[in-house]
From TrEMBL:
It comes from Gadus morhua. One of its GO terms (cellular component) is plasma membrane. Residues 779-920 form the TIR domain. This is TIR domain-containing protein. Signal peptide: none annotated. PANTHER family: LOW QUALITY PROTEIN: TOLL-LIKE RECEPTOR 13-RELATED, TOLL-LIKE RECEPTOR.
Amino acid sequence: GFLGLKEINKQNQRSTWEICFCSFGILYFSLNSFIFPTAGYVVKGCQITQNTRAICKNSLKVFPKEIPETVTFIDLSGNNISKLNKKALENLPNLLHLNLGHNFISKIESGTFVVQISLKVMFLDNNMLCKLQDGMFDGLVNLIELHLTSNQIQTVAPASFMSLSKLGFLDLGHNKLRDLKNILHHTPHLQSLYIPANNISIFHSWELSNKSTELVTLDLSQNELMFFRLTAGIFPKLKKLHLEDSIKNGIVWEVSNTSYLRSVHKLDISGVRSSLHGLQEVLETCNSSLQYLKLNHINNNLQVLINISCKIPTLDMLHLCTNLKELDLGMNEITAISNNSFKSLRKLKTLIIKSNFLTSVPYAVRKTQILKLDLSYNNINALGCDDFADMKQLRHLSLYNNPLMALKDCVFKDLVHLNVLMLQNSGIDKLNGAFKKNTPNLENLILSNNHLTVLDHGEFKALNSLKNLALEVNKLKQLNDGTFFGLSSLRQLTLRSNEITEITNGAFSHLEALKTLNLESNHIKYASLEPIPYPPFAELSQLDTLFISDQHRPRRDKFPQNFLQGLTNLSIIYIQRNQLKTLHPHTFNYTPNLNRLHLSENAFADIPNNLFSPIQKLKRLHISQTNLRSLDFLLHANLTELELLQVGKNTFSVITEPVMLSLSALEYLDLQGNSFSCNCDNAWFLQWVINNKQTQVFDANNFECNFPPNLKGRKLLEIDVRSCTVDMGFICYISTTCAVIMTIAVCFTHKFLQWHLVYAYYLMLAFLYNSKNKDKGAHQYDAFVSYNTNDEGWVLGELLPKLEDEQGWRLCLHHRDFQPGKPIMENITDAIYGSRKTICVVSRDYLESEWCSREIQVASFRLFDEQKDVLILVFLEDIPMQQLSPYYRMRRLLKRQTYLSWSRADAHPDLFWEKLRQALETREHPMGEHIRLTVEDGPPGERPDH
């Protein structure tokens, strides 16, 4: 039947092979994509923020290799790194700040920093370096600040600092240096040099440099100086000279020209233990430019020292001290100061007398024009109304750590320009109206760590300029209406660690400018989630940050659903360690601008699904140690702007794909301390941790399995879950491969097997029709005649008269007996299965006809299916073997049935019709038992004889 279909043209064949070739290309590309996946985003022991900052504190022994090259800030302090080699930092060209302090680094290979040409600040303090070698800092051409404090450095090689041409700050304190050679030779722009607590006994200016330096600060404190020789003016810009605990008895002080230190403004000679003559030499080298003099730890020698430096027997100042602006007399044993001690210090602005034994405010301070007075850590037990009389210029007053007990309403009456007042740790239990009328310009008032129990109405009403009020660690129990009346400019209020249980209506009503409120560690409690009539923060619409963690309360207590009502601009809130088991779903309805939320260390087992829905601007969520069993609540939160999620030390073990995909902006995820299921439930999450490029999962390398038991204690990232992971890349690869193979198969089939497929198609159709019609009963016709319309003349003129008129057979002809309106294939099938036999009148036109091909296919299938002789072939003409070969193979498969040739019946036409009658008359014998009717061994065209 497939002999009648047309042959595919050459152009279509060429297109087919082009498709096959392209398919091979697609297969190759897919294979390469599958074999070479991209790297993941897991950095062992490091927290990376926005791809620019890396903080790694996890007992690391080597420099981590996985840090992205985009990082500009790295903090590796406090690890166990012992060595830096050339490859440690080769992938970090953008580094600006590197902290390697508090490690065990004893060796740095030459060339380690050759890539870090942008580095500006480096910390190598508290390591085990013994020597600074040549080439150690090569590449650091833009380094500005270098910290080498607390190593074991004994020597500095001549070319150690050769690359550090822009170095401005160098700290070599607490090492074992004996001299200062090779430090300033290659650092022409060094401004600050700190060398305290070394083993330097001799200071020679020629060791540092043979030309002028740009040093502004030189710290030689805590050395055992025996010789100080300055023979050249190499310090023209030096302003700060620290010699604390370095001037001992017997020191040789040689400054050949006092102008060499003409720029020194600040001199620290605390702890001096030199002879009077030696001290005089030191002080006289610093001329009238001296503005700051620090004289701590002089103790009983203070009086003598002042006499020497100022050339008078009392505490009046010499002409050398007339320009002094800051005088530090702290940490001595002063018990009293004479009334005229500071009379000559007309330019004095800062006076520090802290940590002495004063029992009252010295009268001498009233004679000064100082702006800052520090009397902290003395024994002053009371303040009088005239202690600060006429000190209207005073801006900063420190009285903390004195046993003041109580204040008077007149004590600060003259301090009209005071900005800062520090009264912490003073045992104050009552304010007694000290701030109801005075200090109108006060901006910072520190009353922490006292014994205040009650604040009267309007206690601070004169403080209209106050911006910061610290009342932490007192004994306040209740905040009443009017407590903070007058504080219209207050921006920060600290009430931490009091005993507050209740905030009455209107307590914060006058704090319209308040930005930060700290109520941590109090006893605020509510018994129900139901709304309360007077929300405590209803009038704090400008509040930005609220601390309300660590409330000491029974477990049954809750926060009312409208607890945060009024906080429309709140950005940050801390509600940690409150033993909360639940929050009302409407808790955050009143804080639409919340940006950071801390809920860690509570007792939540579950979070209401819609709890976070009102805070769509949330960027940081901390909810660790809360017994969470699942993160599914995040699916309903719609936190599309969340950047940081901290959910460590909870009880969930599975993290699902929808949860993570719902956090589209997440950059940092902290899951430390959770126990994970190492099975297919976490397969997607494991692959996501390794492959995602946006979110860093902190310390993922140390996540441990808790289930199943045989994997307990294993590292999560070491588990192979490829067998249960749906890998879209692999699926695409398989799909593409199958598509390519199918394309190749179609190309091959279309080229070589198209006729066999067509044959199989029609064979299947015949089977379907056979199944439908074979059980319909007796045959309606003796034979169905299948012919081409071009052969209709022979059928009607020869075949029909002979078989119907003369022999009496009933034939089925398509032009006469097919049912009009019925599908043609149904007509064909019904005709074939409704007839005992099928006569196929075969000619060249017949073989080229599509419908004739279908008719012979159905008849052939009936023959094959029923295993009966139901097919008669009548050849009207001789046909070449190449046109009959597929048909001939089919006939050989069916053991060659009846064949009749009209073209060879010219000599014996009667025999032809007799044979045809016999074929029609032959009953349906099983194949193999039929009567031999043909006179030939094969179809016409195969043998020449009849």
